[in-house]
């Protein structure tokens, strides 16, 4: 009985993961940090942004898949790079994404470096072509941040990368439910009553 009640209390207190696909649809955004679909994207170079499908058409040399995308290209401030964190500060996992080089005239590599809750690290390097490709990621779980860095060094209009359809699982920070202290007091009372009878 005691194990059942304690298990019930922990289940009620635990958070559940929710799946989402980040599609970067909506409004064009340009800033040092962009918030989109529950995630913050901090950029290191100014040739970047979240671009809608209609806006991308103004750049005929940019790789597109016909939808909105996150684009990071180089400038005088350095290598195209962005770091993704959950806006609420929660832990997340990335299962897969679609990516391409940012420009039609050059291929690139994309380095991913994830910082995990508790201090672990996970990394991989993707080879990007001039058309979108789908990539499945392994081990990118319990992340507090994920940095995407172009393999090209920083230069004005250096080839960067384009991201779309980033599939994530979120584990939100779990606040203590208001009824949890009352539930624990009730469990304590039942345990005390059982001991008194024994």
Q: How would you describe what is shown here?
A:
This protein has 198 residues and is α+β, with helices and mostly antiparallel strands. It has one domain: Sandwich (Jelly Rolls), CATH 2.60.120.1350. 17% of the residues lie in helices and 41% in strands. The protein has 3 helices and 12 strands. The protein has helices spanning 2-13, 53-56, 180-197; strands at residues 18-22, 33-36, 39-43, 47-51, 69-73, 81-86, 91-101, 108-116, 121-128, 133-136, 143-150, 161-171. Strands 1, 4, 5, 7, 10 and 12 form a 6-stranded antiparallel beta sheet that branches. It is elongated and about 80 Å long. Residues 3-14 have low confidence and may be disordered.
List keywords for this structure.
disordered N terminus; 3 helices; alpha+beta; 6-stranded antiparallel sheet; elongated; Jelly Rolls; 198 residues
Q: Which structural category fits the helices and strands?
A: alpha+beta
Under CATH, the topology can be stated as Jelly Rolls
Number of helices: 3
Please tell me the total number of domains.
1
Strand content: 35-45%
The sequence of SSEs as H and E is HEEEEHEEEEEEEEH
Question: Based on DSSP secondary structure assignment, what is the total number of beta strands?
Answer: 12
Measured between the Cα atoms of the first and last residue, the distance is: 14 Å
CATH architecture: Sandwich
* CATH hierarchy, class: Mainly Beta
Helix content estimate: 10-25%
Average pLDDT works out at: 82
What is the 3D form? elongated
**Cα Rg:** 22 Å
CATH superfamily: Protein of unknown function DUF4465
Main sheet specs: 6 strands, antiparallel
Give the uncertain stretches in residue-range form.
3-14
